[in-house]
Design a protein that fits this description.
Length: about 140
């Protein structure tokens, strides 16, 4: 019985320590953006700056959370298929080879939400409990 209890505590601790999962973030856009759904591929292309225009809504302006954010770790893994460090290296290489820079990074999710709400064409991601009516939630197919 003691071994069973130890295993339960061990497994519970491992689950608690796991990084956040895809269900722990939602994609948000400026309320003026007409899009209400995106595919995972669209989102990846947006965050790699391969897709730069909304259909009929102008330029797409992606915003990122800080590198230390567990929400960013979940987003990077689920949408970009990479760790945050790999994404940072991707943008270092793009800057060195083509002068391209990655999405603007904000140090807090509050700033991400504020800038998405105020910036036409903006897109970002937040923990679900950080969303309010200043931003519009977009459904992502394939999550």
């Amino acid at each position: 019985m003691r071994n069973t209890a130890k295993w339960i505590v061990l497994v519970a601790g491992m689950l608690w320590a796991m990084p956040t999962l895809a269900a722990d973030f939602v994609v948000v856009v400026n309320p003026g953006v007409k899009v209400s759904t995106l595919t995972k591929d669209d989102l990846k292309r947006i965050y790699q700056k391969e897709k730069t225009e909304w259909s009929g809504d102008g330029a797409i302006i992606p915003f990122d959370q800080s590198a230390s954010s567990p929400v960013r770790a979940a987003f990077s893994k689920e949408i970009l298929g990479s760790t945050v460090a790999e994404v940072q290296n991707f943008w270092i290489n793009k800057k060195m080879t083509g002068g391209l820079t990655g999405p603007k990074v904000f140090r807090s999710p509050t700033l991400v939400k504020k800038f998405v709400a105020r910036t036409p064409g903006a897109i970002g991601y937040l923990a679900e409990d950080q969303v309010d009516d200043t931003v519009k939630v977009v459904q992502v197919s394939g999550l």
